[in-house]
Specification:
mainly alpha, 2 helices
Amino acid sequence: MANQFATSQVHHSNPFLYPLFTYQGDPSPANVRFDAALQRFAQQVSLVSNLQTNGKLACEEAYAQLETLWEQLRQSHQQLLRERQSECSAG
């Protein structure tokens, strides 16, 4: 059974449980979106890890969810690279 908490794309408003830090690099829209995706990835990996460590999630399920999270982050990074490439060729 999949754990809906680990891969949820819902924005969480609790700053204690889901802190978001401001982006400190080049403030292009693509970089800010990737930074948000990276922060979401880190939070969700922590959640999956904690659930598995505490016996609330099977090892296999945790691994499957981590693979899904990694693939989502990889796709976000590829999108960032495509946007940068199109900006360079347009500019």
